[in-house]
Amino acid sequence: xxxxxxxxxxxxxxxxxxxxxxxxxxxxxxxxxxxxxxxxxxxxxxxxxxxxxxxxxxxxxxxxxxxxxxxxxxxxxxxxxxxxxxxxxxxxxxxxxxxxxxxxxxxxxxxxxxxxxxxxxxxxxxxxxxxxxxxxxxxxxxxxxxxxxxxxxxxxxxxxxxxxxxxxxxxxxxxxxxxxxxxxxxxxxxxxxxxxxxxxxxxxxxxxxxxxxxxxxxxxxxxxxxxxxxxxxxxxxxxxxxxxxxxxxxxxxxxxx
Length: 257
Ligand code: PGA
Fold this sequence. Notes:
By secondary structure, the chain is α/β, with parallel strands linked by helices. The chain is built from twelve helices and eight strands. It has helices at about 15-30, 45-55, 80-85, 95-100, 105-120, 130-135, 140-150, 155-160, 180-195, 200-205, 220-225, 240-245; strands spanning about 5-10, 35-40, 60-65, 90-95, 120-125, 165, 210, 230-235.
């Protein structure tokens, strides 16, 4: 059984007080939800305050990135143990905005994944094709390379801990969602790549999230797909009501997973 994950990627939004307002709104409304793993991902400056506010609750906190060195002269970077120290349990790694604007590559993703695992943080590894890649029929090949490259040299035991997020770049923040069938096709392929680099039972347990304009109107259809195990959500995670609705997606339709 794969426990579904609903993760809010807040990107560069919310000051500390705005972040606290948001989680204080969400927390009482999702109290008692035990069958969905709930994650929020504030900016670095709000991590510790949000994690303190959520301590003992059923909402986990993720950073949006992580550096791979333990400490030293790396101005502007934040080390893995500093992320756990702030109260995080997860780290988003290799988001397409980091690949697009900050030079992230599969090699740097791999270093960050290893660094996260070394301190017990669960990596949420993001992959996805651009519009140009999709239009030229390269989606599956691109995603294969990103999954294999991001997870290279990991033990099967470590691969078993990882969450993968498939986020087609053309669907992020654009209002264009991949249809459930389009997403399912890629998720199925990602699961088979995970099986290739580990084994079938690990692949069967790996949570693969969809991301890209997920909202209350489309979450149920996406989550009903057999290989879609959750959502990584940007815009719709910034409002209490829509995030709560995503957490409370229609589980009956995906109960067979
Ligand atoms: P979006 O962002 O839901 O606003 O499209 C998703 C993401 O980038 O994680």
